């Protein structure tokens, strides 16, 4: 028995997950744990019958008539021996200073936990319920109600005596009561009533729906959501009732308040307890199921559901099946749901167990995400709520995320995440690098290694470099070039002297980045390109301005690199030798023609014609391409009579077409030139015909005095040229005998035409 109980004390959440929602991806809303310590000791020898909750402590009643005060961890702080039989209910006022207790043998006690005041009486019938006034601590509120066969209200008079009054009787035993503010709600065999303690009026009667259920086996559950909202759960029915003020015109002989049912719906299971959670409800349900093997009904684990009430139905938000001790033997009346409003704590009470349910916080949310291997979301949640989380650290979550990615084989993503997660922690960086080395994935992490802040140990960078030198040069070289300030070009070239193929890769990459940085090695690179990378030799020769051409020519001629030799010969000014090599070595007339076009040298065309004159295929190529550069007649006249030339007719037709095209182009250009010349002439004429403003601001360009005399009455002569330069007539030199026309001295000296001054002004 002890061994079984020891196993049951394991994590309640694990047992909760055994339900059919085990594989669900929906996150639970609540978390659970057993109330242990003193509670465990109590329930090993006794059984819980009732409990009430205050923000500061708990009060637990047992079947052996004991009342225990407990802290929120379940430790016993005080014990009261009230009766030898079952405690039916415990009630606390809001201050937590006064407690009421009733038991199966008819005993009722109301006493102060920190004062001497006390009420003690034994009735002739079992007392099922008790509720003290919420403000019992006040002298004006010394009231409480008890319920057995009738509901009694006890009040203390000014003489410190207690007097009682019957609030209700005749409808069976009173089995549930809740007092909130000035309103008392209770349930008997017929339904639920609400009494206004101020007006001394009963303001409603809410009948129960399913009268087939025994009220002692399936008792009513009541809870006040606020001062005017009562929630009733009975059988499988839930009703949300709102207490409202009646309008004065409707009063007559009716109570000043009335009740409106704002929501009513059915649940799947029998209700054992209710509690509010914001605008939602927490419902404790008693569950019976049919065994597939025996086809008999049995008691299943109770459920704790969060539901959203609607007007005529409800929406299930979450549902958890709870493994409480002895659930197989419990009935609906054995479960109770108590709650602490201040902290949203919910206590599921059963004879052998007390389970605490609480809303999950951000730490719990992160726990769930990590359990579901949703590391990215967990990391994001931790970053957003880093001030509120207590059990988790962002770095720990990040490291777990990296490990998860590595285990899954997502090495590139894991390496990329290192940059954000590890930050500037050099020790962690070095640890992760070694871990990536062990799994052979140094390449994956290398692009993200810190290079400035922080700086890792040199061994780390050397290890990465060695990895790339062994497997990936287009990467090792990039790393060396990116860290040129730490490892000089000279140092790298010297170190790679015994590995010329790597030396070439390094120098080639350097040249691609900057044509001038490694100029001292350009001569060396000629041999390296020739040996390891001929396709890039010609581009290198074209782009390098520091390459010794004679050395390059010597190497290319030794290796019979015709294209490279042709380029070098032409670059060194020996175009005729280059052309000869194209024709004699490559036998490529198109390349020869292209070369001649590039050089645009008449002597080269002459050499090309002489070489091609006895080679019909060359002649065809020349006839097809020579027309726009050399007069085709020069070639045609040299063709030997009777020589067969492939596609001669087509070539001649092309020559004629090219000629006609040139004629058309010339005529078109001529028309454009004539039209432009005429347009410009007209524009010049219009410009010269325009008047020129002459005022006192203008000066003579010769004597630099004002062009107009101070006395306008005197006769004067002014010469204004089309270039807008002005002179006094007497300041101009006399025209020569050869030409009577006069010209502007300034523009003539500068060899500019008329109107040029206007253009200068516009500039």
Question: What do you see in this structure?
Answer:
This protein is an alpha+beta fold. Helix content is 35%, strand content 25%. The protein has 25 helices and 32 strands. The strands form nine sheets. The chain has a four-stranded antiparallel β-sheet with strand order 1-30-29-28, covered by helices on one side. Strands 2-3-4-5 form a four-stranded antiparallel β-sheet, covered by helices on one side. Helix 6 (394-408) packs antiparallel against helix 7 (411-422), helix 14 packs parallel to helix 16 (549-558) and helix 21 (616-625) runs parallel beside helix 23. The longest helix is centred in the last third of the chain and has 42 residues, at 648-689. The chain is elongated and about 155 Å long.
Strand content: 15-25%
Q: In oligomeric terms, what are we looking at?
A: single chain
The separation of the N and C termini measures: 109 Å
Q: What does the average pLDDT come to?
A: 84
Q: Which radius of gyration do the C-alpha atoms yield? A: 53 Å
Continuous helix count = 25
Shape: elongated
Enumerate the strands of the largest sheet in spatial order, edge to edge or round the barrel: 1-30-29-28
Main structural class: alpha+beta
Approximate helicity band: 25-40%
Strand count: 32
């Amino acid at each position: 028995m002890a061994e079984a109980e020891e196993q049951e004390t394991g994590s309640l959440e694990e047992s909760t997950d055994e339900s059919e929602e085990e594989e669900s991806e929906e996150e639970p809303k609540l978390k659970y744990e057993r109330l242990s310590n003193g509670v465990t000791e109590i329930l090993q020898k006794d059984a819980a019958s009732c409990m009430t909750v205050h923000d500061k402590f708990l009060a637990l009643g047992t079947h052996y008539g004991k009342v225990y005060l407990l802290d929120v961890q379940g430790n016993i702080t005080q014990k009261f021996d009230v009766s030898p039989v079952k405690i039916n209910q415990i009630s606390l006022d809001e201050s937590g200073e006064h407690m009421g207790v009733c038991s199966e043998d008819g005993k009722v006690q109301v006493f102060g936990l920190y004062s001497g005041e006390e009420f003690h009486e034994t009735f002739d019938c079992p007392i099922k319920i008790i509720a003290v006034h919420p403000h019992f601590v006040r002298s004006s509120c010394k009231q409480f109600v008890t319920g057995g066969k009738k509901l009694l209200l006890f009040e203390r008079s000014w003489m410190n005596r207690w007097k009682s009054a019957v609030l209700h009787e005749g409808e069976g035993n009173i089995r549930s009561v809740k007092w909130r503010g000035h309103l008392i709600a209770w349930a008997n065999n017929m339904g639920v009533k609400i009494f206004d303690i101020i007006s001394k009026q009963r303001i409603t009667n809410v009948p129960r729906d399913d009268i087939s259920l025994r009220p002692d086996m399936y008792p009513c559950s009541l809870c006040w959501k606020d001062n005017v909202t009562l929630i009733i759960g009975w059988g499988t029915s839930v009703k949300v009732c709102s207490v409202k003020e009646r309008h004065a015109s409707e009063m007559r002989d009716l109570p000043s308040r009335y009740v409106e049912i704002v929501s009513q719906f059915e649940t799947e299971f029998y209700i054992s307890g209710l509690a509010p959670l914001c605008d939602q409800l927490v419902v404790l349900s008693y569950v019976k199921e049919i065994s597939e093997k025996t086809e008999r009904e049995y008691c299943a684990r109770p459920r704790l559901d969060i539901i959203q009430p609607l007007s005529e139905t409800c929406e299930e938000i979450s549902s958890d099946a709870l493994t409480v001790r002895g659930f197989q033997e419990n009935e609906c009346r054995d479960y109770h749901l108590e709650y602490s409003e201040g902290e949203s704590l919910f206590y599921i009470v059963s004879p052998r167990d007390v389970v605490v349910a609480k809303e999950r916080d951000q730490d719990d949310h992160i726990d769930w995400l990590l359990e579901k291997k949703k590391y990215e979301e967990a990391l994001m949640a931790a970053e957003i709520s880093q001030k509120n989380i207590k059990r988790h650290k962002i770095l720990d979550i990040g490291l777990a995320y990296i490990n998860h990615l590595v285990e899954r084989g997502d090495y590139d993503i894991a390496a990329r995440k290192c940059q954000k997660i590890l930050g500037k922690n050099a020790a962690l960086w070095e640890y992760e690098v070694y871990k990536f080395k062990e799994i052979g994935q140094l390449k994956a992490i290398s692009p993200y290694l810190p290079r400035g802040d922080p700086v890792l140990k040199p061994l780390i960078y050397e290890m990465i470099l060695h990895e790339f030198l062994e497997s990936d040069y287009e990467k090792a070289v990039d790393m060396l070039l990116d860290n040129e300030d730490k490892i000089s070009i000279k140092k790298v070239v010297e170190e790679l002297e015994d590995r010329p193929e790597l030396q070439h890769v390094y120098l080639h990459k350097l040249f691609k980045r900057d044509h001038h940085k490694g100029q001292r090695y350009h001569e060396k690179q000629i041999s390296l390109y020739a040996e390891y990378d001929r396709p890039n030799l010609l581009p290198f020769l074209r782009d390098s301005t520091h390459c010794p051409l004679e050395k390059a020519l010597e190497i290319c001629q030794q290796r019979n690199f015709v294209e490279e030799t042709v380029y070098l010969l032409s670059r060194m000014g020996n175009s005729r030798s280059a052309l000869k090599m194209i024709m004699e070595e490559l036998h490529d007339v198109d390349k020869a023609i292209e070369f001649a076009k590039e050089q645009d040298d008449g002597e080269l065309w002459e050499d090309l014609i002489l070489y091609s004159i006895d080679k019909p295929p060359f002649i065809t190529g020349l006839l097809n391409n020579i027309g726009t550069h050399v007069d085709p007649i020069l070639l045609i006249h040299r063709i030997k009579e009777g020589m067969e030339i492939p596609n001669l007719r087509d070539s001649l037709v092309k020559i004629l077409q090219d000629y006609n095209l040139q004629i058309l182009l010339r005529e078109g250009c001529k028309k454009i030139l004539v039209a432009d010349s005429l347009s410009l002439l007209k524009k010049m004429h219009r410009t010269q015909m325009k008047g020129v403003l002459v005022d006192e601001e203008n000066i003579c360009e010769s004597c630099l005095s004002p062009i107009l005399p101070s006395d306008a009455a005197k006769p004067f002569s002014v010469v204004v040229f089309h270039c807008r330069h002005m002179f006094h007539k007497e300041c101009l030199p006399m025209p020569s005998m050869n030409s009577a026309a006069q010209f502007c001295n300034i523009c003539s000296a500068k060899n500019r035409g008329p109107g040029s001054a206007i253009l200068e002004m516009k500039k």
